[in-house]
What we know:
Blueprint: H1 7-76, H2 82-89, E1 101-106, H3 113-124, H4 133-136, E2 163-165, H5 182-194, E3 198-199, E4 203-205, E5 211-221, E6 239-246, H6 247-254, E7 263-269, E8 278-283, E9 301-308, E10 311-319, H7 321-327, H8 335-385, E11 390-393, E12 398-401, H9 403-409
Antiparallel strand pairs: 1-2, 1-6, 3-5, 4-5, 5-6, 7-8, 7-10, 9-10, 11-12
Amino acid sequence: MSLLISKPMRHYAVLAAIATICLVLTAAAFHWARGQAWEVMVQGFHRAGASNADVVADSLAQRLDELRSVARFFNATEDVTREHFATFVDGLVGSEAGFKALMWVPRVPRSEQQAFERRASAESGFDYRIRGIAEHGAHGASGGAHPHAGVDMPGHDYTPVLYVEPLQRNRHALGFDLSSEPVRRAVLERAAREARPISSDRITLIHEDNDPSGFLIVMPIFAAADVRPGKVAAVPPLGYVVGRMSARQVVSAALKQRTLPGTVITRRDLADNAAEGALFSLVAAAVQAAGRRGDGDVQVRFIRPVEFAGRYWQLLVEAMPGYVEVNLAKGFLLVPPVGAVLAVLIVLYVHTLRGQRERAERSVTERTADLDASRARLSEAQRIARIGSWELDHRSNALHWSDEVYRIFEYDPEGFAPS
């Protein structure tokens, strides 16, 4: 049994196929245009992220230069007093992007403890005593009391805080022996061993609203003839210049005028494990109205590793929905309606062409029928009147007889060619 499809049905099937092809092409064009817009946005995001990372790296490099300037000050000054120290570092502490505190931490052999305490008490005007972590109640990297708190560490030289600026909010640090706490002792030993600035593991800044992104930068001070910068030290240092910093505040201050609206900036310590590596997560103020980032959102991120004072960090900038909403070009949204309009126009055009063709075919059929009828009437009239007609084609020299001429001369039209 054969299935016959009518001509109109075939026509509408063709129109449906054309419409389907147009819609498929429109979907492909939409996908391509959206991909191009997304790529342009991501490239712009990466450029801005790289620029911001450079600003942060420059800010951190400036802090190292400032710490080295303090080291040069100690090397150039024969006898540094509390007033000298306070005057020199006055412009280096207290700013949002700078050091939260700067300390001078001399190395004191255990045999010289009492003499050192007498000199420090005379200079400071109060009873100066070297205190270990148990007395000081210092906090370690975890933010709470360190598990080694209260355990005496015999055998090592003392490294007490002798000077600290700004003094008013850091007076409690005077006399604290940094070597009595494992995190601080580790960074002091490494700085002395490598004779260069070294940053510590994370510590909680209890006097900065318990900021968990705190860390120390330690610059060893040697006698000028003892060691050259960058060479392994063969002798212990005279002491250390120690800067206390907040990674959160350094980055937020550096990017204060450059933060990308709609982004989250995270800085990670690559020495920590993944669960504890996040130093902080800084959300741009302009992002707060954009809502929180959902797990289903496409991630746009920029990652820049940063080496700072012997430690590797990672600056991670992530785009939130608000950034994508603002910065993704919306031109690709015009593709579906434009494609739909073009599909309709093409279908209408094809439909119109078919109508014109059908009308032309009907006209030809009608004229052919009229011509055949006229020829039949002429032939009948010639038969009745016994009158024939002939026609000579001068270009081909061909002679054509009418049917009646053949009958008059009694020739068979199939077997005789007139000439």
